[in-house]
Amino acid sequence: MTGELRRRVAVALAAAVVLGFLGVFFAWPVAAIIGLGVRGDVGAVLAEPATWRLVGFTLGQAAASTAVALLCGLPLAYVLARLVLPGTGLLRVAVTVPFVLPTIVVGMAFRALFGAEGGVLPIVLANAFFNVAVVARTVSGLWGHLDRRMEDAARSLGAGRLRTFTSVTLPALLPALGSAAAVVFLFSATSFGVVLVLGGGRLRTLETEIYLRTVQLLDLPGAAALSLLQLVAVVAALLVATIARRRRETALRLRAPATTARPPQGAEWWIVGLAGAVLCGLLAPIASLLVRSVSTRDGWGLAGYRALLGTGQPGTLEVTGLEAALNSVRTAVDATWMALLLGLLASFVLVAVRRRFVAESLDLALMLPLGVSAVTVGFGYLITLGSLPGELRTSPLLVPFAQALVVTPLVIRTVLPVLRAIDDRLRQAAATLGAGPWRVRREIDFPLAVRSVLAAAGFGFVVALGEFGATSFLARPDAPTLPVAIARLLGRPGELNSQLAYAACALLMVVTVLGVVLIERLRVGTDAVEDF
What we know:
Blueprint: H1 3-39, H2 42-47, H3 49-82, H4 88-100, H5 103-114, H6 120-143, H7 148-156, H8 161-189, H9 193-198, H10 206-215, H11 220-254, H12 268-293, E1 295-296, E2 299-300, H13 303-306, H14 321-352, H15 356-371, H16 374-384, H17 398-421, H18 424-432, H19 437-465, H20 469-474, H21 482-490, H22 495-522
Antiparallel strand pairs: 1-2
């Protein structure tokens, strides 16, 4: 067998594994939802005024959240891309933490800040809080590559700072801004934990309505029809993000690498102050959550943390809070190694495929699980996987499978840019000396990409740890993850349940922060959120 034939066989096998997993655990469940929605009375659901009120609120709060995230993210992006300041690494950690916090934790943090009644404003601010990192790191990734000489030339011709920004810098940043806006809008429109906690049962999006109709009303055709409607909107937003990202990559190729950072000068200190104010705004909900976790009716205390050893009020949980935390760790570990395996195989295929159209189509297919609602995927599992042998629908592996779907695109986005940056002549030289495709990857690619692989593993672990949308459908009552246990605690009255829920949120948050710190120490110049 020739070297080229071996390479093609290896690529085909890797692609078969990845696409097979994607087909069984993503395409099939989503297709089942589409089929159920089409077979049901979609017209009746679409004719209901309540449906379009849901659509209006979903799109409206997503648009408002996107606008707030853009306004807050731009000063942070400028500081990260253009200024040399002490503590920039800590700033990156602080900006990234909200994005990887579990949505249920973000909801609880804003509930502690605004009160249990919730409302539109807390939902919008919580979604913006969650997505500021997407704007800051996506835009800073391009802003750092823009040559300052264009701005200096405009200033020398008499343009003020504002005109220079609007006429020179802003047009160059539009691809990154468009990509970030599309992704933030997508995440906000499919936000589940935030709306579930802060909606107060009165405010619902398509995502939470699908959950309500499935779990409480048992209206599967109606839920499927809403899932179909949401799926159309999600795919449209994902396509916009893909087109914007391609334009951003073209812009990066046309400009010099990032050598533009410098100490703040003059009016730039105002931008530093504005970024500091945004950072304080990001820290306020987190601080409120920590304070609430040690607050009791009798003053300060650790009753909530001690309650982690129990099950809350009688009849609330079937396991202790500590057992739920261990369940979260076990499922996150399983999801992480599955996602690493699939993500590395997929990255290998994307690097090896030489036809651009095929590579881009495969890349879009691999990103779809990140854009499609996790609630829709979990709902699809309930419909389809029960027909497989071995009672897979009740298997403890089902939750890691669902979480791996969410984590795999993040692994690809972290590892793929590094693999593509490796000089292909090194691979060709190794192949000339007789190394097969797998040995080339092991001897050449892996040593150069090992830090990004470890960063992807850490990032994937913290994301899987807090995944709530699909897990809320799939976790068994006797084996809930910590986010699912928190949601159940919130749904039952009692001071002990509330204290336990806030203590569990604080525990999740601490683990997430530690994970992000580790990721930043392993960072190799490629931001995981930068290429969504």
